[in-house]
Here is the input.
Amino acid sequence: MPCTTILVGKKASYDGSTMIARNDDSGAGHYTSKKFVVIHPEEQARTYKTEISHLTIELPDNPMRYTAVPNAEKGEGVWAASGVNAAQVGMTATETITSNPRVLGADPLVVYQPAEDGKEEVPGGIGEEDLVYIVLPYIKSAREGVKRLGSLLEQYGTYEMNGIAFQDHDEIWWLETIGGHHWMAVKVPDDHYVAMPNQLGIDHFDLEDALGEQKEYMCSADLKEFIETYHLDLSMDGNFNPRDAFGSHDDSDHVYNTPRAWFMERYLNPHTKKWDGPDADYTPVSDDIPWMMVPEKKITVEDVKYVLSSHYQGTPYDPYAAYGDKSWKGAYRSIGVNRTDFLSVIQMRPDHKGDNGILQWIAFASNAFNVLVPFYTDVTTTPEYLSNTTGEVSTDNFYWANRMVAAMADASYKSSIFHIERYQEIIWYQAEPYLKDPFFYFP
Here is the structure.
């Protein structure tokens, strides 16, 4: 999906939480209705069949309960997207990423081939539709998540390039697929955050650690040979950069991807680098914007919501700008777009490692006009207004109510944004007491 992700290490967050957050966006021209549910072990299939690739996978017989944000309508697969399991492990999948012809020619994507001309169909690999469903119910740490998904990628392959985040109370891991069967993963340093548009992002990788002790890096077993065989390392000084080797630097990236990374890091590190002007260290079209940084101050959930709702406020690129030079207005793909289906922020708090320790913040529809609401994940069900979404537009569920608010506010941005901001503020402060006591009563 054309999404945006931010990951926050526990020493980079305001309260010691690990946080993984992702906007789940539909493709241009349509919406995908979503619901927030709990999937119980008895509801989890033991034989799983993919919709897109026609692949059959036998799953373990010991799944755990987990939260998920699947598609509300049946027929196109599960797309569980983001959740937390009973072992207190979080996962969000996926951030669709890019590659280049050298990689895709060396290790082609595993694409479904329908039956034709007397030949039987050939199943494809696994993809975003499947990943949370076939991984999250079976892992007990973020590190285990990387290993399980890596094994599945090597066994079945994939038909698309993706980035996937795993977290527990102590660690965050980010995995990126490489071609049809290869992958690499990095443990996010505790004092860093990661800003991810739809572009392969990892810009440093220690192959020795990944193929040895695996303290901070992991990868497919033959990745080193793959790089050497196909001459993928483009470094002049021997300092291997995966983004150069496996990623893309297309003109379209400079409209669709690099500007988003630029805005997020410009907001969280306004003084660390120079982001504007002719002598800027990084501009919206820079190909070398850091994949991760140490923030200038600790990051809050509100910060995460702001950057994932942004449309280049305070810059010449804001599509809603009503003042100044408008020649660059709307030049770049915003983060908070009208086709966002949901935002999930999974917050694992260090002082609540037992029951009620994990929050999954949920917002539906366009982030510029919605509100992020916290929900506990150690539950057996979710409120009906979150789980009863259908394909029919209705004010009876939170998804479509938010869609309608966004449609009206977008068309009247200047007169609506004040009211939207006050609404967001009220929900935030009313939710605050429940973060400490789930049984708090707000009069």
